[in-house]
Design goal:
The protein has eight helices and eight strands. By secondary structure, it is α/β, with parallel strands linked by helices. It has a domain at 2-110 and 189-214: P-loop containing nucleotide triphosphate hydrolases (Rossmann fold). The strands form two sheets. Strands 2-3-1-4-8 form a five-stranded parallel sheet, sandwiched between helices. The chain has a three-stranded antiparallel sheet with strand order 6-5-7, with no helix packed on it. A hairpin with a 5-residue loop joins strand 5 and strand 6.
């Protein structure tokens, strides 16, 4: 069961994928998390990635693809995976098709105003990366992670003035990918038009689609 998840920043990909992974027994693989871990660990790849990021340049496909392929070769990914943040380019999509293939692409449709509200209230754990929201998914203790007790913070790119541009960039770059998977008959759209919709409700919709596809 090889699933890719598409959705603009703040559409809930990480939140839904982390719930799906426990229901399906396959790993949630976020290329964003992998990149951040390489940078944090100051590996050779991490230093190269940081250099591109600091200059405001896109990290070359080859680096991201190599990172991902290394992860997909780990034992827990043999039964399948949920990919979040990959593919981001047509070349990445074609490489994924050649190496492992994809069974289903989930496309989260969320209006911009909902995303801006959600992201500008998002909190992330500094220690384990768990995601919270001041409006819809509050931690039990303010600014403290329920899972590991780490400090919660707001990412710089989750500030309202940055979000709209991120959405514009996402839509321009992802449109060809959405069409690519739609033409292959692998794409299924999931809509969420209300900020207060509980994550469990969207996960239920995604699970219904998965059950239809895989029985």
């Amino acid at each position: 069961m090889r699933i890719v998840m598409f959705g603009p920043p703040g559409s809930g990909k990480g939140t839904y994928a982390s719930r799906l992974t426990s229901l399906l027994g396959i790993p949630h693989i976020s290329t964003g998390d992998m990149v951040r871990e390489e940078i944090r660990a100051q590996t050779e790849i991490g230093k190269i990635i940081k250099d591109y990021s600091d200059k405001g340049k896109l990290v070359p496909d080859e680096i991201i693809v190599n990172l991902l392929m290394r992860r997909l070769n780990e034992p827990d990914a043999k039964r399948g995976f949920i990919l979040d943040g990959f593919p981001r380019t047509m070349r990445q999509a074609e490489t994924l098709e050649e190496t492992s293939g994809v069974d289903l692409a989930i496309n989260l449709n969320v209006p911009d105003d909902v995303i801006i509200q959600r992201l500008s209230n998002r909190l992330v754990c500094k220690r384990c990366g768990a995601i919270y929201n001041k409006l819809t998914l509050k931690p039990k203790i303010d600014e403290i992670c329920d899972i590991c007790g780490g400090e919660l913070y707001q990412r710089d790119d989750d500030k309202p003035e940055v979000i709209q541009e991120r959405l514009n960039v996402y839509r321009r770059s992802t449109e060809p990918l959405i069409e690519y998977y739609r033409k292959k008959g692998l794409l299924r759209d999931i809509s969420c038009n209300n900020l207060m919709t509980p994550p469990e409700e969207i996960v239920e919709k995604i699970m219904s689609v998965i059950q239809e596809e895989f029985g």
